[in-house]
Amino acid sequence: MRIAIIGSGIAGLASAWWLHGEHQVTLFEANDYLGGHTHTHDVEVDGVRMAVDTGFIVFNALHYPLLTALFDELGVASKPTTMSFSMHSARSGVEYNATSLDGLFCQRRNLASPRFWGMLADLRRFYRDAPSLLSEPEGPSLGQYLLRQRYGEAFVEEHLLPMASALWSSPTATIMDFPARYLVQFMANHQMLQATGRAPWRVVEGGSARYVEALRRRWQVEERLRCAVNRIERLAHGVRVHSVVGIEDFDQVILACHSDQALALLADADRSEREVLGAIRYQRNEVVLHTDATLLPRNRKAWAAWNAHVPDDRSAACTVSYCMSLLQGLPGDTPLIVTLNRSDAIDPAKVLRRLQYAHPVHDGSAVRAQQHWGELQGRRNTWFAGAYWGWGFHEDGIRSARRVVDALRCHTPLRTQQHHAEAIA
């Protein structure tokens, strides 16, 4: 079959990889690079050239089994990293690094702070009690749950919300609307509700784009870079793709772009597609790669891989700065930092790259929409893959691709499967 794949994030890449040996695959990508949120930049700092990631960064074998298997198959090298977390509040002046006692109490005054000790007590209580939410079929929003359980302001505003905002690149108000059960399920699945025994995290040697390069060296896929798709029509026996290079017909199409982009491309979207895909909203985030260390905590003992910042203005969102020097083990004394949605605070002379990414918003309507995954797949020769079907992370994207590829293979008429088997033999 001729299969069009729209979008080259992890869902599109994995779909192309698993299908290219059986079918004629054409991969459409509007950008000038393949990878989507796998985005590595070659920069020079203090006379040293380095590859720095600004999108996908970390994985581990336990929670990213499909991605790890793909890396192993491709021979992609990786190395251990740290997933340390820090918080600095411009509102209260408190900052800490949760990794060690010295980092936790890097501000020695916190040893005598009832508020700080109350935050730690609430943290232990949350870890102990929150798993009870997993037995509730729907349950409250995170904001409702925290209010109902009377968690203190310090724990909510200086730990849980900054941490969740960093994980999902979402504003505080959006995080409070998350279904509490959904958040706790993610934390439980990733061993974040336990203090010890967590799976070790890793990064790709030389930047995440190395795995994209490994795919491209080994597959037989027609790549269409800088080739935006404008419209998709479903035909009686296939699909018609309108792109910047013209109009082409395919047997099947996999929309491996964001759900809102997929819906916008469908010229003849039906009611189910509009309701399910339209229920998932996106948060646009401005991402800056830079070397301005003032975006990290003031006390160097508090510097961590993930550095959350709570603004003085209560109406403003928490932001995060990733210390890529720690995460990727980069050389040199000048820290390389990726900051989201706090561009005005960065010294323009220290900016290396400015980018825009969009991340799915995991509110109640999005979580409910995910339950209808199977209702959309394969109808009118159209398939939908993307991290938005899960928690929005790399493993969610590759898992969605695996499900689509498996379902598409079952969907393929037997005579077509036999034809391709004979052609390969």
TrEMBL record:
UniProt cross-references to SUPFAM superfamilies, sorted A to Z: FAD/NAD(P)-binding domain
MF terms in GO: oxidoreductase activity
Amine oxidase domain segment(s): 10-280
InterPro entries: Amino_oxidase (IPR002937), FAD/NAD-bd_sf (IPR036188), Zeta_carotene_desat/Oxidored (IPR050464)
Protein's organism: Stenotrophomonas terrae
Protein name as catalogued: Dehydrogenase
